[in-house]
Amino acid sequence: MERRIGVIGIVIEDREAVAARVNAVLSDYGDYIVGRMGVPYRERGVAVIALIVDGSTDVVGALTGKLGSLPGVKVRAALTGK
Q1: Would you give per-residue pLDDT tens digits along the chain (82 residues)?
Q2: Highest taxon of the source (predicted)?
């Protein structure tokens, strides 16, 4: 499959409840993650993570699907056309 470069945005509404599970999923897909930036936005009670990824649409879809199935986790992805 063709690999694409993209960005995944993750918003975690209850960090304490799901942080370990989010990190476990990200660790499972570590080979596809080029970079990661996480910011705890304490004033709003959320955490925001931005990932740069390099993988097939199937891999990115599986990653975003697993993250999005976690309670209180919102995920969006944008990929290059090539």
Answers
A1: 799 999 999 999 988 899 999 999 999 999 999 999 999 999 998 999 999 999 999 999 999 999 999 999 999 999 998 7
A2: Bacteria
Question: Whole-prediction pTM value?
Answer: 0.92
How far apart are the C-alpha atoms of 27 and 22, rounded to whole Å?
Answer: 9
**Cα–Cα distance for residue pair 74/81, rounded to 1 Å:** 23
Cα end-to-end distance, the chain, whole Å = 11
